[in-house]
Write a structure and sequence with these properties.
mainly alpha
């Protein structure tokens, strides 16, 4: 079974509505980023835009923990000398609350063209209402019917089975017999000649075996000759030692 790789045409994006009121900014941004990337789907692919549409309402009611409202700062630069602009979180929330959420979510998405496509599916609004009620209702109906829950169909290629045909081996003797029968025009099958077909094979095997035996004997001859020479040398040394012992005994007797 091959690994399934999703395609953009096989996936239908859903629509999600998230209320940002009294939610921490970081927790809200991470939740939305997961939906935009499509990480909640079993066929998630990091190189494709398989995420859903997300609508965030009540962006002005988002909150932060600790002293971030006073300490958190947004920087931007005009590109000219001395063009650094600094805006605090509280000031940005009053001026443009949608930008606060968009900046937090954008930092959690890929920083490339794929991330820009994902950000295009994010819709942020300051109030409770939004103009995407038709899309939300359509996705809810599809979810209730079970269309979106079904995984895309995986098409497997059927492998063709190879037919293995056993080739019949025809010996030369059988081929000659078959040729004679065809010349005579007889429809009978050729007679089996096991002895005639096996005899040349046996004759061909015997000379090969005899040659191997002769080669082994030739290889062993020098070994046997060297062994015999070694035995002769040992006998000569033994005789010399015995003679030397006899001479020493004789000399000792004469001294006595």
């Amino acid at each position: 079974m091959k690994t399934y790789t999703a395609k953009i045409g096989d996936v239908q994006p859903q629509w999600h509505v998230i209320d940002a009121s009294e939610k921490p900014l970081g927790r809200l941004a991470s939740e939305v980023a997961q939906l935009l990337k499509g990480k909640h789907k079993p066929f998630y692919s990091p190189h494709l835009n398989l995420g859903d549409f997300v609508i965030v309402v009540n962006s002005s009611k988002v909150r932060t923990t600790g002293k971030k409202a006073q300490q958190k700062v947004y920087y931007r630069h005009s590109g000219y000398p001395g063009g650094l602009k600094v805006v605090s979180f509280s000031r940005m929330l009053e001026k443009n609350p949608n930008k606060v959420i968009e900046k937090a979510i954008k930092g959690m998405l890929p920083h490339n063209s794929l991330g820009a496509q994902m950000m295009g599916r994010l819709k942020v609004y300051t109030g409770d209402s939004h103009p995407h009620e038709a899309q939300v209702k359509g996705s809810l109906k599809a979810k209730e019917s079970g269309v979106l829950d079904k995984a895309p169909k995986i098409k497997h290629r059927k492998r063709k089975k190879r037919k293995v045909v056993a080739e019949e081996l025809v010996l030369p003797a059988e081929a000659e017999v078959g040729a004679k029968d065809t010349e005579k025009g007889e429809g009978a099958k050729p007679e089996e000649a096991p002895a005639a077909s096996e005899a040349p094979v046996a004759e061909a095997i015997q000379p090969a075996e005899t040659e191997q035996v002769e080669e082994q004997e030739k290889q062993e001859e020098p070994k046997l000759e060297s062994a015999q020479q070694g035995e002769d040398e040992l006998e000569e040394t033994e005789t010399k030692v015995e003679k030397a012992k006899d001479n020493t005994d004789d000399s000792e007797e004469q001294r006595d």
